[in-house]
Structure formats: C-alpha cells, structure tokens
Amino acid sequence: MKQHPSRALDTTVRLIVIASLVFFILAMSVNVALGSPAEAPKKPLAKNIIVMIADGSGYNANIAADLYQYGAVGMQPWEQFPSSSR
Q1: For the chain, what are the domain ranges?
Q2: pTM score over 0.70
Q3: Confidence class of residue 40 from pLDDT cuts 50, 70 and 90?
Q4: One-letter-per-residue 3-state SS of the chain
C-alpha cells in the first residue's frame, strides 16, 4: 500500500530532525572529550543529559494532563527540572 506523498514527507522531515539532534549531541560530546586539559572547565560537566521531544503535545495537552493527574497546573515532574538556556 502506497503512502500519501505528504505523509511520506512528514516521516522524512521527522527522521531528518531526529538524525540532526543525534548528530549534534554526538558532535558536542566528541568536542568535550577531545578538549585540551588547559581548557578544562572549573566545575564538572553534566553527568546526564535528557533530551525531551514532545511531538504533537501542545500547551493545552500539558494542562489537561496536570489537571487530570494532580488537580493543579504545573505539577508534572519534568516542569520542576532545573534548566538553563545559556
């Protein structure tokens, strides 16, 4: 059975985005691993990195999940993670 052309394009775009993210993460880890000792940061690097991709989950879906599970907004565990955009 043939896929609709737009569905095949959506699948291709998703695969390209996922491959780009994996390549970026691997490139950054190699860059950190090959850095010279003189350039080592004073504080330790992150031990674990979590990449969350919520495809199709919008703002309203998150609020609905909060209200259903906890009865209040902003209670999901991932909303309490420390984050930095620097």
Answers
A1: 5-80
A2: no
A3: low
A4: CCCCHHHHHHHHHHHHHHHHHHHHHHHHHHHHHHCCHHHCCCCCCCCCCCCCCCCCCCHHHHHHHHHHHCCCCCCCHHHHCCCCCC
